[in-house]
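Design job #97: recover the sequence.
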């Protein structure tokens, strides 16, 4: 077997390792620990670590009497072997702080192995000290002795001045091999103590001052510094999922600890990751993502951040990317011909005196994302193999973080695209209400949640206000929310009453749950809540139904904020339970607030406190709606809500009596001509003579159908809103259907004609029958004039004729 103790026997790769939790119980037991003490892992896991020691106080005494090293301790402890005998161990202990307290990482080896290694390191260190003091180093290099021969001066020194050192267990004559340069081994037989910095004796008998370090101590300190830097990198790099922040964190770890300048160049695919499969992210040219220098004025910079970076084909960067491994160059060596192809870089490197140049590929999960370039000029030491290994380790760690940032950016873009497509980008204009809203997902990074809201224009100048909440967060909840929002919009177009609409949506949620349960990889739709309200600016009434959702709040102008008693239906997805609606009269200028439960349950407050704060925020409803929204956010929500929050507030308006009129129509075909004349005269009064012919055609067809196929009473209503609305009501529940008539048919073309001349048309059901309606687009001048509803007193009743 090769030299058994080439490295520190207490190193993590060669020592016995045990992990002990905050309660003193063993959580991990390595194979070397089993070989050292004889206990198997199954026999010691979850046992107190003190049960393996000579006494229960042995561990605490060892740590108390040990030597502090960094964040841990080094000491000697007596353990009990599985066979029953005692064994002295060299021990290192380091605390690992977690959320559950401080666990401990222990590494141990036989005390003799530790002494032997420290003897070797100490003797070699003293040998170097004496060689420097006696001037023998120069002789070794220049005296002409062969490489395989030890200089005579060195042999005399060793014979006449053995190191006066002792071990902690008494003097021993352990032998340790040493080499002079590449020469033959020297067998040094000297008592050694594992302590550095003792006085050394010069050949003339003079005592040299204590030296704080030796070659071994210097090597150990260097190794510790490198481990500390790797540990620091683990904490600093990748603290966020922001790509720019991650590459800057890598630059800050490399400069000034390892380099005088670093440049990080990413392929454009690294900034906009569209393809994250195994391969190369070589989408276009390299782009400078970050750079950092020991000088604030950045004299080394040739390319600005965000600009494309073009390296010559034979440059170390291009060779590094092509070969997929690091390239170490002496920059200004005669062989560096690639610089002649880049005069600007050549001049910069010469001016600074850069002597060492290292390029490392940024690779993670099989994807090459860019290249990291580090330079030295003020540091006189060129990059060596140790530097190369350390920088490669740091870059590899950072590459994983960069790849995570790329993947997060892709998922974030997908989530934002989904959110944009699911939520209304712009709420429709309505004469019935003014609207303001806020949408605050708890998953701020993903940007999506299960809450939604909507404003849906309905026939007869009415408007539907919707707020819902799908249980859960993230992209699956958002997808389910999108399906429910689409269903509500479709059912709203059918003009279903609020309670019937929620019953239909409840059936949909049940089907979605069944589909998700049947699909092994599909998200389970557990349920949702919703409140659906329809406001009529003519009747000034609000018809509301809710499914497991908080009741809306109504801020009156002259009365306290009201939470009307709306029957609490079951959450969507339970099935088999009825929904009920309630009708509330609302005065003009009141503010209606619909919201999700995250608003009143934020910050773990009591729900009653949440309602009180909501009342405070809605007070004085005559304020601008955006100001009310800001007050609600500031008053009810913490900086980082635990649940998604969506709310919609609407200020009510009315249509005054001069904006609509209605007539009762006898169930007599001769009445058609009379109501056509009344409609034409009303249009003249409104200044809409240009729509008279089309309106008379629609009135004639709809009234004729009602007289022929329905029963009385029959009503006709004209509404001048953002469009001209013509409504014919009767007591029949039979909906009219448009069909294509044959040439020989005497009738059946009425609804077809209405559909051709109207902007849109439809049917809605009422408590007493149905209403067939049609809308005509107003002339531009009238549309602008009627864009804002009339504000002021009005009877709400229509004129009769």
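Job complete. Output follows.
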């Amino acid at each position: 077997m090769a030299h058994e103790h080439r490295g520190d026997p207490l190193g993590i790769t060669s020592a016995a390792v045990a992990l002990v939790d905050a309660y003193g119980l063993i959580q991990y037991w390595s194979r070397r620990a089993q070989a050292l003490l004889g206990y198997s892992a199954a026999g010691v896991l979850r046992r107190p670590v003190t049960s393996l020691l000579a006494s229960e106080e042995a561990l605490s005494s060892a740590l108390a009497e040990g030597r502090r090293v960094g964040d841990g301790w080094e000491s000697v402890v007596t353990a009990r072997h599985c066979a029953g005998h005692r064994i002295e161990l060299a021990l290192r202990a380091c605390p690992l702080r977690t959320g559950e307290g401080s666990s401990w990482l222990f590494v141990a080896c036989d005390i003799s192995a530790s002494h032997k290694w420290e003897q070797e390191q100490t003797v070699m260190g003293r040998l170097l000290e004496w060689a420097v003091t006696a001037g023998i180093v120069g002789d070794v290099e220049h005296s002409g002795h062969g490489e395989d021969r030890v200089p005579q001066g060195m042999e005399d020194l060793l014979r006449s001045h053995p190191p006066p050192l002792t071990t902690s267990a008494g003097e021993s004559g352990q032998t340790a091999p040493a080499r002079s340069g590449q020469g033959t081994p020297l067998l040094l037989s000297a008592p050694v103590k594992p302590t550095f910095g003792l006085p050394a004796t010069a050949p003339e008998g003079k005592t040299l001052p204590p030296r704080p370090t030796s070659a071994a101590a210097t090597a150990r300190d260097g190794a510790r510094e490198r481990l500390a830097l790797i540990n620091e990198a683990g904490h600093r790099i990748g603290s966020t999922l922001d790509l720019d922040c991650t590459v800057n964190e890598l630059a800050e770890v490399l400069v000034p600890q390892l380099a005088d300048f670093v440049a990080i160049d990413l392929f454009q695919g690294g900034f906009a990751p569209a393809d994250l499969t195994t391969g190369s992210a070589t989408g276009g040219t390299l782009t400078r993502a970050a750079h950092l220098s020991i000088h604030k004025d950045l004299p080394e910079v040739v390319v600005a951040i965000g600009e494309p970076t073009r390296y010559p084909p034979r440059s170390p960067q291009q060779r590094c990317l092509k070969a997929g491994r690091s390239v170490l160059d002496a920059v200004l060596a005669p062989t560096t011909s690639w610089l002649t192809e880049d005069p600007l870089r050549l001049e910069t490197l010469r001016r600074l005196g850069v002597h060492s140049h290292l390029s490392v590929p940024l690779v993670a999960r099989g994807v090459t994302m860019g290249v990291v370039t580090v330079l030295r000029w003020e540091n006189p030491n060129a990059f060596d193999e140790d530097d190369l290994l350390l920088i490669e380790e740091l870059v590899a760690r950072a590459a994983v973080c960069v790849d995570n940032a790329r993947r997060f950016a892709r998922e974030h873009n997908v989530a934002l695209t989904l959110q944009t497509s699911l939520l209304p980008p712009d709420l429709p204009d309505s004469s019935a209400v003014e609207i303001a809203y806020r949408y605050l997902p708890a998953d701020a990074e993903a940007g999506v949640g299960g809450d939604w809201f909507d404003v849906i224009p309905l026939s007869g100048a009415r408007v539907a206000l919707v707020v819902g909440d799908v249980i859960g967060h993230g992209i699956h909840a958002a997808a389910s929310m999108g399906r429910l929002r689409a269903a509500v919009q479709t059912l709203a177009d059918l003009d279903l009453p609020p309670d019937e609409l929620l019953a239909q949506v409840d059936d949909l949620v049940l089907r979605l749950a069944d589909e998700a349960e049947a699909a092994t990889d599909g998200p389970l739709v557990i349920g949702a809540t919703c409140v659906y309200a329809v406001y009529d600016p003519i009747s000034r009434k609000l018809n509301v139904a809710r499914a497991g959702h908080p009741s809306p709040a109504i801020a009156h102008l002259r009365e306290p904020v009201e939470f009307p008693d709306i029957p609490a239906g079951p959450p969507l997805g339970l099935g088999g339970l009825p929904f009920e609606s309630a009708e509330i009269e609302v005065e003009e200028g009141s503010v209606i607030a619909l919201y999700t439960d995250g608003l009143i349950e934020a910050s773990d407050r009591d729900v009653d406190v949440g309602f009180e704060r909501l009342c405070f925020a809605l007070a004085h409803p005559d304020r601008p709606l955006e100001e009310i929204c800001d007050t609600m956010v500031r008053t009810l929500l913490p900086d980082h809500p635990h649940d998604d929050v969506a709310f919609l507030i609407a200020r009510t308006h009315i249509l005054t009596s001069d904006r609509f009129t209605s007539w009762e129509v006898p169930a007599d075909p001769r009445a058609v001509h009379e109501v056509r004349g009344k409609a034409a005269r009303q249009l003249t009064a409104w200044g809409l003579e240009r729509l008279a012919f089309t309106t008379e055609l629609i009135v004639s067809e709809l009234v004729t159908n009602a007289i022929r196929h329905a029963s009385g009473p029959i009503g006709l209503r004209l509404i001048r809103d953002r469009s001209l609305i013509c409504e014919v009501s009767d007591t029949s529940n039979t909906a009219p259907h448009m069909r294509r008539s044959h040439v020989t048919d005497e009738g059946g073309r009425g609804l077809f004609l209405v559909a051709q001349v109207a902007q849109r048309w439809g049917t809605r059901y009422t408590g007493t029958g149905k209403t067939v309606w049609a809308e005509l687009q107003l002339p531009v001048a009238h549309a602008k004039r009627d864009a804002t509803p009339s504000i002021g007193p009005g009877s709400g009743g229509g004129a009769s004729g």
